[in-house]
Amino acid sequence: MERLEPSQPEEQGARSGAESPERLDDVKGHLDSALDVLEQELERAQRAMRLGEEEPTRVVGPPEPLSAVRTEPEPLTRGTSVGRYLVLERLGAGGMGEVYAAFDPQLNRRVALKLLLPGGEEQNPGQARLRLMREAQSMARLSHPHVLPVYDIGEHGDRVFIALEHVEGSTLRQWLKQARRPWREVLRVLAQAGEGLAAAHAAGLVHRDFKPDNVLVGRDGRVLVYDFGLACEQGTGSPRAPVPVDLGALLGTEPPVPDTEAFACLNTREPLETPVTRAGLIMGTPGYMAPEQYRHEPLTGHADQFSFCATLHYALYGEHAFEGSGAAALARATLEGRLRPVPRDSDVPGWVRQVILRGLSPRPEERYASMEELLEVIQGEPRARRWRQVLAAVAMLFLGAVVAGAVGQWHQEQSVCQDVTSRMHDVWDAPRQEAVRQALLATGQPYAADAWTGVKGALDTYASGWVDQQRRACEATRLRGETSAERFAAHTACLERRRSEFKALTGLLAEADSAVVEHAVEAVRGLSELGPCESMDGVLAPSPRDTGRPAHLEGSHAQLARARALRLAGQYAAGLSAATTLASEARVQEDPALKAEALLELGRQQLFAGDAHQSERSLHEAACTAEEVGLDEVRAEALVTLTRLVAYDTARAQDAHDFYQQARALLVRTRRQGRLLAELESAHGLVYAAQGDPLAAESSQRKALAELEKASALESPEGAIVLRRLGLALAAQGRHAEALAENLRAHAAFLQTLGAEHPRVGTALVSIGGSLSALGRPTEALTALRQGVDTVARTLPPHHPFQATALDALGAALWRDGQGEEARRVLRRAVEASERARGPEHPDTAQPCTTLGRVLVDQGRPAEALTLFTRALRLRERALGPRHPELAAPLTGQGEALLRLGRASEALAPLERALVLRSTHTVPPEALAETRFALARALWDTHPDSARARLLAREAELTLERSGTEALRAQVQAWLAERSSDG
């Protein structure tokens, strides 16, 4: 057991007065007794540390009087407003408070909200509140790459919150548990955290609670120190306590009376100047606290240095630096300097151990002069080590010469598999990466930098996955003999197909223009998955293309890869031309595998070009050809695409269901899951939505999300697209709060993967605004909608169909907010944008026509409105048939316009038809109430004192209970009240 030398008794006696040996024995006995008391008092802390993953910050000292049982509030639901922020999900909770992921609509970014719980840790509420404010102020005054940034502080009811940067990643403790970390990697990560501590010291602060749970390791590689709730000024700590405080005497005293005056002046004193730690209490985390924290001595950066080295010990050796499992045992070991021995299996070099030992010295002056000095030592290995490395290298050369003959064959076999990395040359090596970066940034698009970040991260992962899989396959065959040569050849050919796609896409990105950068991240994520190559085990039979191909066909496969890359990158015209040429050549070549793949690509290209008829023919031929030669993967992809192709055509619903069943059976048989199955389930949801069955659509989208979650692709553009489709299905049922929650999740995923200036982020903002408007939250709705419309207008071409969709949503929200004149102007632009994008006879134009008609009815212009409703009805009926629920909106509009024109008898027919459609389908309750109320008025005007009219109006009133329907409910109630007095 190693022991650090404690302070000498003589020195302690000099500070506190001469003591006799008998007196010293008494003090020692009293200290042991007091520490036993501490062990009992901290039993709750010990249990929590055994059960929980994190080690909570402790208030160590005399037990507080029992407080009333605290009732914790329910977690905030998605979409709840906290200040200007919208809650997305709860990330975690502790004794002090909760942490939520949230969205800031003003600055269009994701944040983390730390929200104080009432009476957190049974503290005085004012004290807990003050601690959170101090944390915010401490972190806000630090601007450093390794300190978590604070954005804002505010109040939510009786609770205080701070808004911080939302970092995707994990705590240092979680990061260490995810995988075995080499000691050099641990040093690198901790050194970055140490730089954050050094910045705090330079600003005059001591963190006072540095530990593995207060360090974030981001997925982007950043390392950040956070939770400055116990931070104090250098040279302070517990101003009213004598220095030093004997721990035994401290534990033997009664709890002090709370100093309420220290918190009463919260509004007049700066939080950092107000002591949070009361006399007689020690705040920190046992196992990481410096001895001077236990002794209530003034604290300097040396205390953080101690905590840093205790954390470094835990990170390197996987256990506490000091002996003991409970809080009091750790305190005793810390004060006595009793360190655990080094684990026998540790590969951490001795010089690192010496650094830790010095940093854990009980006396602050024996540690390093500063954090900077400590960091300088751990970031550079000693000269002696470098000299030993030179000697070792010489020895290895000599040894290698002696045994070269014995191991030469082994090295040759190893090199065969180790050379796999070279296959990424000219595909994703440093020159290609730099070419892509420059090309993307040169477009000048506002989201180009974010696109480059997303592209590089995704392609780095793909390249690493490709190399690892190829190396594993090689070693299993060449070194261990676990796999046959035929199986290895098929596996390699499958991976080579992926590599060709990879190379074609990076080549295209290296020549990127503005259109390419818009689709860059999604293009990368659209690369063929690597998993199917590894899972070819007899269930998925090797195909002709996976057993090698003649040299004269190499060019055709390269053309196929480029055509696919062009489609993924949004270059639809060029992609269609390349795919058409390739498919024509493939039909005359003797390679059915190439023919099937070429036809599949051609069908996809034709679908994006809007040629549904030709697309369906190509996909059918691809599926049949693939079935003939056992290409299950190609056939499955063709069937999935066919499902999506006919998804919106209600007349082809049965065909779509048939394609879905065939594709799903094939994917189940081949054990194929992940993104392709998710794409199929989501496409099936679109079929149900087109049929006017939002309940079934919701079920399918949730199945798609479950598959994406299995593939760890939920926080991706594909996942966000499915979330938006789920939001649409929920909104179609009138479940607008749930729709808002899913739209917020979609926006967060788009924001994270595509950057704030990507058009998909704008589309998500439009969906968020539509949900907020339907919920009766007009100010928030209009903020999100205006920002979404601006983003879409800035990043999409003027003829893009979503321009009309965004303007329609904004116009509807303005109308609901009573801003009729601006709504009318915006909606006229929406109709024009739809006509420009799709043509005046396209069914999509029906939506803005219907919304504009409703505004005109309210403005007393029913004749103009009637023309628009009639046009919308004609467009939808021609596309959807006579019994689709979407016809109900223009039919109800016709009835309203006719009522305003005094033609109540003519209004009855369209309103009766609309009521049947909405009563027999799942629609938003407020939509059904609108039709019922309009029909009630028409019936009353044509048949005064109609009992059915009153019944319809009462049914409408009962339906209008949720937020956002208050105005219509008031109209219905007033109408009923007038008819009741008439009776």
UniProtKB/TrEMBL annotation:
GO terms for molecular function: ATP binding; protein serine/threonine kinase activity. Residues 1-31, 50-75 are annotated as: Disordered. PROSITE patterns: PROTEIN_KINASE_ATP, PROTEIN_KINASE_DOM, PROTEIN_KINASE_ST, TPR. It comes from the Bacteria. Residues 20-31 have a biased composition (Basic and acidic residues). InterPro entries: Kinase-like_dom_sf, Prot_kinase_dom, Protein_kinase_ATP_BS, Ser/Thr_kinase_AS, TPR-like_helical_dom_sf, TPR_rpt. It holds the Pfam family Pkinase. The keyword DNA-binding does not apply. This is Protein kinase domain-containing protein.
